[in-house]
Amino acid sequence: NGTDKKPPSPSPLRFSKFFQSNMRILVTGGAGFIGSHLVDKLMENEKNEVIVVDNYFTGTKDNLKKWIGHPRFELIRHDVTETLLVEVDRIYHLACPASPIFYKYNPVKTIKTNVIGTLNMLGLAKRVGARILLTSTSEVYGDPLEHPQNESYWGNVNPIGVRSCYDEGKRVAETLMFDYHRQHGIEIRIARIFNTYGPRMNIDDGRVVSNFIAQAIRNEPLTVQLPGTQTRSFCYVSDMVDGLIRLMEGENTGPINIGNPGEFTMLELAEAVKELINPEVKISMVENTPDDPRQRKPDITKAKELLGWEPKVKLRDGLPLMEEDFRQRLGSPSKN
Ligand code: NAD
Ligand code: UDP
Ligand code: UDP
């Protein structure tokens, strides 16, 4: 008779759906600029529990203040170069200083964060069976000899320069991700992030968008580093977060470029900030730093095809959104 039959065990599909609807998510570097916006988005889904680990090197609790004390949220002071024991389904691994002045400040620590930190997060992913996403960078393309950059380009990186702790560190992190994937079957996702901007950027982190906006508000000259014809492509942070979540929940390992293909010279960026924020401000040409990439623009064909993603916010719309946040933090009266 059929009455003592065991109920069928859940199919792999139903099993994965169960986890997709109730997820515990670790965000390393979640007190930073991109990380805290990602946390905001993940917390919107009531089925998600979010754990942030951060050593507050460049991030701050302030970025997460609206979640502290929330029952689905946990904040842990921890350095990813040390072993971490938590039980999670997803790991967004962002911990790493991103701005040149911060990653060059202690280059050995930057390498440790990228290499040992990523190794630890992969060891954690292996132990608990979590899927892990690494926020790599367009810097893996170095001073690129192909333009725009697509994911099959291997890059032109100086292995011994002052930026190498970051560029080569992220390259090793990508290698580790693929080796854990091939050797241990870990589910990996790699995003190659291009320059991102928006509210909560560190005001004094030396990056070009934060520098120009702070300078325009303080009515100090916009410091365009020579020659001023070098280019970058700037993605607004809400678009970035959307791309990262799609990548994590999609089927593709990557690497996938996530960035806005709108390309600007630094002089054009300065002109846009001047026009939108302070038409009186001066522009001054200053010395550059070594190994500055001359051009950078993502080819986002893969993100469009595989993730159905493309950025929505244009630079001219994003800059004013960031201005308001900077005015508040600089104690400068709002324009409106
Ligand atoms: P951020 O500096 O604001 O955030 C990084 C966070 O990591 C900070 O909160 C910092 O305190 C934390 N952190 C650093 N070292 C750590 C360690 N050893 N242990 C624990 N926490 C540590 O930078 P961001 O702009 O938000 O960048 C986030 C990620 O995105 C980084 O991995 C960065 O390399 C990558 N990325 C950013 C950009 C960009 O334009 N912002 C571009 C390419 C890649
Ligand atoms: N690791 C961790 N949390 C875990 C599991 C591992 O931080 O839950 C670290 C561990 O300290 C180790 C690294 O991840 O240094 C790599 O772990 P793995 O198991 O792959 O390698 P092994 O421990 O065998 O060297
Ligand atoms: N830059 C600039 N003025 C500044 C800061 C940066 O002209 O005050 C230039 C810098 O030379 C580089 C570009 O802006 O060509 C982007 O620099 P950033 O440090 O923001 O990012 P990354 O070099 O990592 O892309």
TrEMBL record:
<dbReference type="Pfam" id="PF16363">
    <property type="entry name" value="GDP_Man_Dehyd"/>
</dbReference>
<keyword id="KW-0520">NAD</keyword>
<keyword id="KW-0456">Lyase</keyword>
<keyword id="KW-0210">Decarboxylase</keyword>
<dbReference type="InterPro" id="IPR016040">
    <property type="entry name" value="NAD(P)-bd_dom"/>
</dbReference>
<comment type="pathway">
    <text>Nucleotide-sugar biosynthesis; UDP-alpha-D-xylose biosynthesis; UDP-alpha-D-xylose from UDP-alpha-D-glucuronate: step 1/1.</text>
</comment>
<dbReference type="InterPro" id="IPR044516">
    <property type="entry name" value="UXS-like"/>
</dbReference>
<comment type="similarity">
    <text>Belongs to the NAD(P)-dependent epimerase/dehydratase family. UDP-glucuronic acid decarboxylase subfamily.</text>
</comment>
<dbReference type="InterPro" id="IPR036291">
    <property type="entry name" value="NAD(P)-bd_dom_sf"/>
</dbReference>
<protein>
    <recommendedName>
        <fullName>UDP-glucuronate decarboxylase</fullName>
        <ecNumber>4.1.1.35</ecNumber>
    </recommendedName>
</protein>
<feature type="domain" description="NAD(P)-binding">
    <location>
        <begin position="26"/>
        <end position="320"/>
    </location>
</feature>
<comment type="function">
    <text>Catalyzes the NAD-dependent decarboxylation of UDP-glucuronic acid to UDP-xylose. Necessary for the biosynthesis of the core tetrasaccharide in glycosaminoglycan biosynthesis.</text>
</comment>
